[in-house]
Write a structure and sequence with these properties.
The protein is mainly alpha-helical. 49% of the residues lie in helices and 10% in strands. The chain has 23 helices and 12 strands. The radius of gyration is 26 Å and the shape is globular. The N terminus is likely disordered.
Length: 604
């Protein structure tokens, strides 16, 4: 990962400061009354004062400022890249990140940008990425590369062209490992998709009850290894620490190919097509605010804004049309499992996001105040620096719509945001780590309830879709259960319940909490006489080689074992087998970072 944007005084710290002052004022007014009244009075005062007295003060403390290109910063980033590229250092990937940062800061057509592209081409050449080397040389020339240095660029271009010819004749390879050049395996549903929802198995349906609210159940028996949903996200958000590595729109790892947005110093894209798509879907509103947003906020407010901006685009950027549509919509009739996705318009897809639960009535005054505070800051930035400004300033109804949407999705996002992952594999150490590169909103996945003993797992596929894979048998009529980050094998019941109550506003009464399931190392074992054993240590040793062929051979064996013993959950062997099964599945279908293949060139 690369460095995140510079950290300064954040919005949360400022909120705490303002809230404490407002509560002191409310306490004086409510000195003879109880705490709930004090908090309610504080919320009332907060809403009044934050839009008047404190707003200017807040802006000053947050040091909000327009995002502009800066060739001085670009030169500094390029100098850092040069130091990392030095023959005695050879930290090539880190060098490219700094060159990408230089490209993002530099003005269009400037020498600073041309030099950064040229330096990136030099790294590509050293890493045997000859086509990328030539692409960067072209970009350097298009950016007015200085004539005084052109001879060096010409020599590198000739060398890269010769090397490509050698590759074509089989005399030289480009340094990529076989695992990285193989096409990713395709995944499909284990059962026929619904005729209305082709990305979900036709045995799934959305049900409701007083105990569970909305939940997803199956109308047939499901086996471990069954794939029942493969869903494309409604909107996504690339985490800022990957902005110099991955495309802001498609999120593919394209470190040698990134080109900058000309309006900000944050977003970079792998192609003009992705840049255009991003601008049309969300970036036209976010371009002027995204740097400040990442500097003062975490990913949750960022994702809330992305949901709103994508929602506006779903209505062809017609805010009046959007307002009327949402006013006329009957939320009780919106059901993603019965909607015809084969004909669904973008606005109908947004409906499935708009109706996600907010738990507004369960939030305390301070929680509502902090989300209101964030909504006001985001609204103020968007009105000041985007095309939303003229409409909000001239039409109070549109202004109210934007504020309402921001506040709504600041409540829905923490409960319905899903992470997207890739595998960071380190072959020398035979280690891998699951890394979160983006956040996403999946309307169908958001309908699946939590359990501290889940019966499914989510896997991010190469193209950003999410596959829901059954991890232990589910009987006909049974409910599907996801895990929201608190698993009984890793966390005691009291701690899990406290975390879930804080973030999701419910007291968990799943099977693991009610029965107080043990932690992983304390789980009981099965009867090996009845069910046999698998050699978990041997399978793990095979999987650390990270070979798709091995994973493909092991996956059906692990699935069968889970189906034989899964009904005895919780057992040590079941949990162990689930981990091995998941690892096999990830090797086959999840993206693995490409950066590992370049390590052999990075030893000084």
């Amino acid at each position: 990962m690369c460095d995140s944007l510079e950290e300064k005084f954040g919005a949360w710290e400022l909120f705490e400061e303002v809230w404490e002052r407002v509560v002191d004022t409310a306490t004086e007014k409510e000195a003879t009354k109880n705490l709930p009244n004090i908090l309610c009075e504080a919320l009332k005062l907060f809403r009044e004062e934050i839009t008047t007295t404190h707003l200017t003060e807040c802006r000053l403390k947050l040091k909000l400022s327009p995002d502009v290109k800066d060739n001085v910063k670009a030169d500094h980033a390029r100098a850092m890249g040069n130091a990392l590229f030095h023959p005695k250092v050879k930290r090539y990937i880190e060098a490219v990140k700094r060159y990408n940062e230089s490209i993002s800061f530099s003005a269009k057509g400037s020498e600073a940008r041309a030099l950064a592209y040229a330096n990136r081409s030099a790294v590509c050449y050293e890493l045997h990425q000859y086509q990328e080397c030539l692409d960067n040389i072209r970009l350097a020339r298009e950016s007015n590369y200085p004539a005084r240095l052109i001879e060096k660029l010409n020599k590198r271009e000739t060398a890269a062209e010769d090397a490509l010819e050698d590759v074509a004749r089989g005399k030289k390879n480009t340094g990529g490992s076989k695992a990285n050049v193989d096409a990713p395996k395709k995944l499909s549903l284990s059962y026929e998709g619904s005729h209305l929802v082709p990305h979900a198995a036709n045995c799934l349906e959305l049900q409701t009850s007083d105990e569970f609210g909305r939940f997803v159940a199956t109308t047939r028996d499901l086996k471990a290894g069954d794939v029942v949903i493969i869903e494309k996200p409604y909107c996504t958000l690339l985490l800022d620490v990957y902005r110099l590595i991955r495309c802001d729109f498609c999120h593919q790892e394209r470190i040698f190919n990134l080109i900058p947005c000309e309006g900000c110093t944050v977003a970079m894209y792998c192609s003009e097509e992705c840049m255009t798509q991003a601008y049309q879907r969300y970036h036209l509103y976010e371009c002027g605010v995204i740097r400040d947003m990442w500097r003062i906020f975490t990913k949750i407010p960022m994702m809330a804004m992305r949901t709103v901006t994508t929602g506006i685009a779903s209505f062809n950027h017609n805010l009046r049309d959007m307002r009327k549509h949402l006013q006329d919509m009957d939320e009780s009739k919106v059901d993603g499992f019965t909607m015809d996705w084969t004909k669904a318009t973008p606005r109908e897809v947004y409906e499935t996001v708009h109706v996600l639960i907010t738990n507004y009535e369960k939030r305390d005054p301070k929680d509502l105040a902090h989300r209101t505070f964030f909504a006001i800051i985001i609204y103020d930035l968007l009105v000041e620096r985007s095309k939303l400004g003229p409409e909000c300033n001239s039409d109070p109804d549109i202004s109210s719509l934007i504020m309402e949407l921001l506040l709504k999705h600041l409540q829905t996002t923490p409960m319905n945001m899903h992470s997207q992952y890739y595998m960071d594999y380190q072959p020398e150490e035979k280690l891998y780590e699951i890394m979160n590169y983006a956040s996403a909103c999946f309307p169908l996945l958001s309908m699946i309830n939590h359990s501290c003993a889940p019966n499914l797992t989510r896997v991010t596929l190469h193209d950003g879709r999410c596959a829901v894979v059954i991890s232990r048998p589910i009987s006909k009529g049974g409910q599907l259960y996801d895990n929201y980050g608190q698993h009984h094998s890793l966390m005691p019941v009291r701690e899990r319940r406290a975390k879930l109550l804080t973030q999701y506003k419910f007291l968990c009464n799943c099977e693991a909490c009610v029965n107080n399931y043990p932690l992983y190392n304390e789980l009981p074992s099965i009867s090996d006489f009845r069910h046999g054993l698998i050699d978990a240590a041997d399978i793990h040793a095979q999987l650390v080689l990270h070979q798709p062929k091995i994973a493909a051979e092991l996956l059906p064996k692990l699935s069968q074992y889970l189906n034989n013993i899964g009904h005895q959950y919780p057992r040590y062997e079941v949990s162990s087998c689930q981990e091995l099964f998941l690892r096999s599945f990830q090797i086959l279908f999840m993206e693995t970072s490409n950066s590992a293949q370049y390590w052999k060139y990075c030893n000084p």
